[in-house]
Amino acid sequence: MSDYDYQNRGGLGGRFSLIPPVIKALIVINAIVFFIDILLSGLNFGGVPLREFFLRYFALMPIDHGFFVWQLISYQFMHGGFWHIFFNLFTLWMFGAELEAMWGSRRFLFFYLLCGVGAGLFQLYISPMFGMVAPTIGASGAVYGVLLAFGLTFPRRPIFMFPIFIPIPAIIYVCIFAGISILMGVGGNDSGVAHFAHIGGAVTGFLLFKFGDKLGLFNFLDRIFKSKKRENSFGSDYYNEPRIYQTNWEEDRRRSERAEQTTRYEQAVKNPGIYVGGEEVTQQKVDEILDKISSHGYQSLSEREKKILFELSQKL
After folding, report:
1. To 5 degrees, how large is the angle CA 153–CA 304–CA 226?
2. Is 185 helix (H, G, I), strand (E, B) or coil?
3. Does the predicted TM-score (pTM) go above 0.90?
4. Is 169 in a helix, a strand, or coil?
5. For the chain, how far is it from start to end, CA to CA, in angstroms?
6. 18-25: long-range contacts (C-beta < 8 A, 24 or more apart)?
7. Which distant-in-sequence residues (6+ apart) come within 8 Å of 178 by Cβ?
8. Is the dihedral of CA 230, 235, 238, 240 positive or negative?
9. What is residue 159's predicted lDDT score, i.e. its pLDDT?
């Protein structure tokens, strides 16, 4: 993601807002799960608190102690107390809002969840080497990935760190927190804090930030979700399936305009004689350009891609 800049805003949340859509959704989901956890603590089944079943199936359990693969996602939305969830979500908002505005909401969500998965894998496989085997809950690992990405994106941004109320560069702030987790984890600290999850989230965040786009990971995930969305939008079962993305008339209008625009460009491409730079424009190329506009906005197009659309518009 080191190649991203403000020209690549897009996805689900193009313009910057105080609480962008994915972070808002994460806050709401975490809060709901937190209150469900509290509610289940007061209920019993056969003399056993229902919260025990909740933790058993949705917390990140150690390998060979009840681990299920979905726990790599579900554990990220569970917390052990008010201050645990408050500081995680506050940090997520504080450092993640600007990143989501820059990257686009879809890619920010991919990044966040993958950091949480990486943190979980570190906790599962590295933590036992130091004698720490226990269920893990919390968004801290994913948040550390976001914190790391913020430090790499804005290395000189001044940050105030409690209890030292003097501004320090963001990259130094990140290094301090990562260093503390490494020392506490390797030192076998038994405070109940999943330090290796913190380390894993930061390491995963670093790898995704540096190599995620070079390896095509985010484009691959984009294509998967775009293809599913396109099936729901234009497939034969469109009116028989729940329209998850259509929540108001404005979204209906945008979807209709996009379908109409796609049809018009398809008709234009069928007419022979459209060449840009000596290369014939194909339907596949037009689809790629329209997908790029959908994800990142018109401003993300190259001059050649803009010229292709201009040439097509003359044929409409």
Report:
1. 60
2. helix
3. no
4. strand
5. 37
6. 18/97, 19/93, 19/97, 20/97, 20/100, 20/101, 20/105, 20/108, 21/100, 21/105, 22/100, 22/105, 22/108, 22/109, 22/112, 23/92, 23/93, 23/96, 23/97, 23/100, 23/108
7. 144, 148, 198, 199, 202
8. negative
9. 82
Closest CA to 283 of 266, 295, 298, 271: 266
User: The tokens of 195 are what?
Assistant: 């330090």
Structure tokens at 216: 């095509």
> CA dist 64 to 76, 124, 128, 135, 178, Å?
20, 10, 12, 12, 29
In this structure, the number of other CB atoms found within 10 A of the CB of residue 9 comes to 21
Structure confidence by residue, pLDDT tens digits, 275-298 = 666 667 777 777 777 777 766 666
Kindly give, in sequence order, each residue whose CB lies less than 8 Å from that of residue 221, ignoring residues fewer than 6 positions away: 110
Poorest-confidence range of 84-93, 190-199, 242-251? 242-251
